[in-house]
Amino acid sequence: VSVYLQADGDRRDLDNADGEEINAETMIRFVRMNELRLVTEYNPVTAVGLMQSSVQLHLLLITDKRSSEHPEHMHRFREAAELFQGKILFILVDSNVKGNEQVMSFFKLKKSQLPALAIFHSEDEEQDVLLLDEVSVERVQDFCNVFLQ
């Protein structure tokens, strides 16, 4: 039996190298880890799914999608997302979308301070913000690790 999901243009295979029987718990864990994209763009439709996710930590990259640096920022953000898959939801918030102003005000951010990372633990509402001059895998990783500790 072969189990896989298409996610972010990649095929994700359930690793069964040891040849053991695949049980329901293993299958559920695999689907849950791969049901969302590595980076999900925040909008009214995805907001419901993000809030109902079993993953309680959300890392938001709040940035201007029209910026010339956006493609490179997203590439690095996706790379970092792979390191925390199943532990932290990585979310893109476009600062140019009028409805996203509420997200920025929740984290007390202004457009002049972007790009920024905001991490949020939905269970106890603990949060932190990191203002960025450049998005790098190392800075994202360090920020997540400090919050996790």
3D architecture notes:
The protein has one domain (37-148): Glutaredoxin (3-Layer(aba) Sandwich), CATH 3.40.30.10. The chain has a five-stranded mixed sheet with strand order 3-5-4-6-7, covered by helices on one side. A two-stranded antiparallel ribbon has the order 1-2. It is α/β, with parallel strands linked by helices and 149 residues long. The protein is built from five helices and seven strands; from the N terminus they run E-E-H-E-H-E-H-E-H-E-E-H. Helix 3 (70-83) packs across helix 5.
Q: Characteristics of this structure?
A:
7 strands; 149 residues; Glutaredoxin; alpha/beta; five-stranded mixed beta sheet; globular; two-stranded antiparallel ribbon
Write the layout of secondary structure elements.
Elements (H helix, E strand, L loop, with lengths): L3 E4 L2 E4 L10 H11 L4 E3 L2 H8 L5 E7 L6 H14 L4 E7 L6 H6 L9 E6 L4 E6 L5 H12 L1
Parallel strand pairs: 3-5, 4-5
Antiparallel strand pairs: 1-2, 4-6, 6-7
Helix pairs in contact: 3-5
Pfam families: Thioredoxin_6
Organism: Crypturellus soui
Family: Belongs to the protein disulfide isomerase family.
